[in-house]
Amino acid sequence: MTLQADLRTRAGAFVVEAALSADDGEVLAVLGPNGSGKSTLLAALAGLLPLETGAITLNGRTLDTAGADGRPVRIRPAERRIGLLGQRALLFPHLSALENVAFGPRARGVSRAQARADAATWLDRLGVGAFAQRRPAQLSGGQQQRVALARALAARPAALLLDEPFAALDVETASLARQLVAEQRDAAGIPIVMVTHDPLDAVLLASRTAIVHEGRLMQQGPTAEVLGHPRSSFVAALAGVNLLAGTGTADGTIRHEGIEWAGVGDAVPRGSEATVVFAPSSVRLHPAVETTAAPNMWAGTVATLEPLPGGMRLRTAEHPAIAIDCPSTIAVATGVAPGIRLGFTIHADDVSVRVSAMR
Questions:
Q1: What is the pLDDT of residues 18-43, one digit of tens each?
Q2: Within a domain: residue 234?
Q3: 163 shares a domain with 115
Q4: Of 9, 258, 277, 315, which is least surrounded by CB within 10 A?
Q5: Beta pairing, strands 208-213 & 27-31
């Protein structure tokens, strides 16, 4: 099965345009900040918003068409066989967990006894079988989310849409929920489109990632490529990496504002425009050495410090575009403070190189 969409839709004055697809057993992560259009895109796929132009198909079946010759097609949400799970479980408060999960099979015409048996099986699979007779108010947030996932899967969807499914969970519960989604991705073998603002969700679950900003797709492709070597400063900021543009030198390095860079990736011809990408946490601090000409080494004066869990992020006056993450233990050992002069190095294996013309 394949879920394919090439569409333009609208939520009030906000317009979203996107072309994407997800195959059997694949998670496509749709990543972007709040207000970028991720949930609007998901609503269109679910049939909750009409298309202005374009089409949506699932396993060759047309779910939506608009703006083309001929009569538009619009399949009702309940008939699309697409499951939708959001960050809020939205369980029926008056029904037990078992009856919540049995609702989907019952709506498809399955007998009450069989629907309850199927529901019990799904609750067991997701580790909440012991709570089958409890109502949502008697369940924790993580338990409710598991029941909601069981309800979505019990309906035997041909595709699954996840809208920030971990955003309302604590760290431990979110980790367990990601594991459950990974298990169901492999077991159910259906296309899954997962909207998230957290790159970790994409790294752990998605083989491909699409970046959305202001209703447009900024970049999409294999997750390792999209998050490992972004094409724009916006995507780089979202992925939490440094993206620097420079020019190829005679010895094959890339020069950016006086620093020479070497890494893995494309061979960079002399004079060619290229980019380098690396994680702030990959940079190592040491006492400043002012006379070195080696690649991936530079010196600078600490200008700003920002707190991070377990450490801090610093930038230098000479190269403010480069973010450097420093654990607290290293910061204490090196005496990190505004105005101090430090040296910085990064291993070539931690630097990704791309020729700009090949992007």
A1: 999 999 999 999 999 888 999 999 99
A2: no
A3: yes
A4: 258
A5: parallel
DSSP state of 130: G
Supply 327's token pair.
């654990």
Per residue in 37-75, pLDDT (tens digit) is 999 999 999 999 999 999 999 998 999 998 766 678 889
> Rounded to 10 degrees, what is the CA torsion of 140, 145, 146, 148?
130
Rounded CA-CA distance 161/196 in Å is 11
* CATH code of residue 203: 3.40.50.300
In angstroms, how far is CA 61 from the centroid of its own chain?
27
| Rounded distance between C-alpha atoms, residue 114 and residue 104, angstroms | 12
Judge contact between 206 and 27, C-beta under 8 A.
yes
Euclidean distance between CA atoms 169 and 198, whole angstroms: 13
C-beta of residue 146 within 8 angstroms of C-beta of residue 180: yes
Pair 303, 323: CB distance under 8 Å: no
Model's pTM, two decimal places?
A: 0.85
The token pair that represents 342 in the structure block: 């430090």
